[in-house]
Amino acid sequence: MDINIGDKVRFLNDIGGGIVSGFQKGGIVLVQDEDGFEVPVRASEVVVINDKPAATPTQQATVARPQTERKPRKEKPEEPTEEDIRIAELKEYYKSKAPSPAPTPRPIQTKQEPQEPKEQEETLEARVIRLEMTVRKLQMRIERLEDAKALRDKTQSSVNRRHEESTRHNEPLEIDLHASELLETTAGMGAREIKEYQLEVVRRTMNEHLRDKGRKIVFIHGNGEGVLRKAITDLLRREFPSCPYQDASFQQYGFGATMVTIR
Q: Is 163 helix (H, G, I), strand (E, B) or coil?
């Protein structure tokens, strides 16, 4: 049966119902109760109530039999689920926090009087469901924001860690070009391949800091035979002619480091 806005419906798996006020994605129907609260339920869990004329004696006899067959189902008690227990606890909590209502005159007892507590419980249950859905959405949003922030902080820290430390202490940026510091292993690499990799590190470092005017960078290449040192100075003179270089502090590095100043 099609469900339209304005239809009067009742819940299949719960007590109560209301007027259809809208729809949401995923087959969710918004049912507005008599207090004006919208309860989200699945379309398969509601049924449209049609106002029909009074049934004839023959129709009443026909309808009476299925009703007697459904009575055992209503009388059979069901074990409460964890969801039922949580809803009951929240109801008691909000009842204790709610202000005491003003005394009202006791209504005249009629056959329909027992329905009043049911309607009140239905209103509290609708409020509990809506609050639980809001809390779940907020928790999911907070988790996504925390994951995104952790990933961003980790990436930023990995890229700028050495740069920030050297800037904080106003010291030159040190780049150790020894193969044991740059490579996890040199297996399968010859001396020429290792030197090309070291020069590529120098080139990449210079390009990353070309905008840091006044920045001093110390390339630690070691004493050795001076092959790597000459290759570095040739690269600086050829590709970065505006950046002067010189031997780094002898007290700290001996003859094993070259310092470049970004201009």
A: helix
CA dihedral 117, 123, 124, 129 (to 10 degrees): 140
Nearest by Cα to 125 from 10, 8, 15, 6: 15
Q: What is the pLDDT of residues 184-221, one digit of tens each?
A: 888 888 889 999 999 999 999 999 999 999 999 999 98
Collect all residues with Cβ–Cβ distance below 8 Å to 244 and sequence separation of at least 6: 260, 261, 263
Q: Are 51 and 85 in contact (CB under 8 A)?
A: no
Cα separation of 88 and 27, whole Å? 27
Residue 89 to residues 84, 85, 124, 150, Cα–Cα distance (Å): 9, 6, 12, 36
CA distance 62 to 55: 10
Burial class (CB in 10 A: 0-12, 13-18, 19+), 56: exposed
Query: Does pLDDT of 236 surpass 90?
Result: yes
What's the CA gap between 90 and 131, in Å, rounded? 10
Most distant pair of Cα atoms in the chain: their distance? 115
